[in-house]
Design a protein that fits this description.
alpha+beta; 6-stranded antiparallel sheet; globular; 2 domains
């Protein structure tokens, strides 16, 4: 075959490799943090506020914790007035998170106005944590990667005394 055949074929394959993921993302087929936030926005007709300059704060946290905290993502839904069914929210979040995430905590108040979902997954030496917290009229969605050993070192610095107050050792 001539060289003139391979050049257009290579260009076409390159275009497909670039365009297909872009179209899938535009069609709403997004998983992870953006997928969960986008689905909550769509389902409950609410708008999330993303924390400005969070990428910079995440980089600072990574340095300050000696790589103990990475990839911080936060979205806040203020004035969240839609009624939320706990089972539906759990299914929605689990479906959009993607593979590897396991729910470790699900807490719902009797009237459903307060709900918390916490998912976790292993990420090499880190642990990914994904939290959805609804407190009456406010919902927060947080994703972060933490070093479990570093986290335990920090937690173990504090003990309970008889008065119920935390004190450093």
């Amino acid at each position: 075959m001539s060289r003139h055949f391979w050049i257009p074929l290579g260009c076409a394959l390159l275009c497909v490799a670039i365009v297909v993921p872009w179209v899938a993302r535009a069609a709403g087929d997004v998983n992870g943090f953006d997928g969960v936030v986008g689905t909550i926005e769509s389902r409950y007709h609410a708008r999330a506020t993303r924390v400005p300059l969070l990428g910079l704060a995440s980089m600072i946290a990574r340095g300050a914790t000696h790589d103990g905290v990475r990839n911080v993502h936060v979205a806040e839904f203020e004035h969240f007035s839609a009624p939320v069914d706990g089972d539906e929210l759990n299914r929605l979040v689990a479906a959009r998170l993607g593979q590897g995430w396991e729910r470790v905590i699900r807490e719902t108040s009797r009237k459903g106005g307060e709900q918390t979902l916490i998912f976790a997954r292993p990420e090499d030496k880190l642990m990914g944590v994904f939290i959805v917290d609804l407190d009456q009229q406010e919902m927060n969605v947080v994703e972060v990667s933490v070093d479990p050993d570093h986290l335990m070192e920090t937690v173990n610095k504090y003990t309970h005394n008889d008065r119920g107050q935390d004190e450093p050792e």
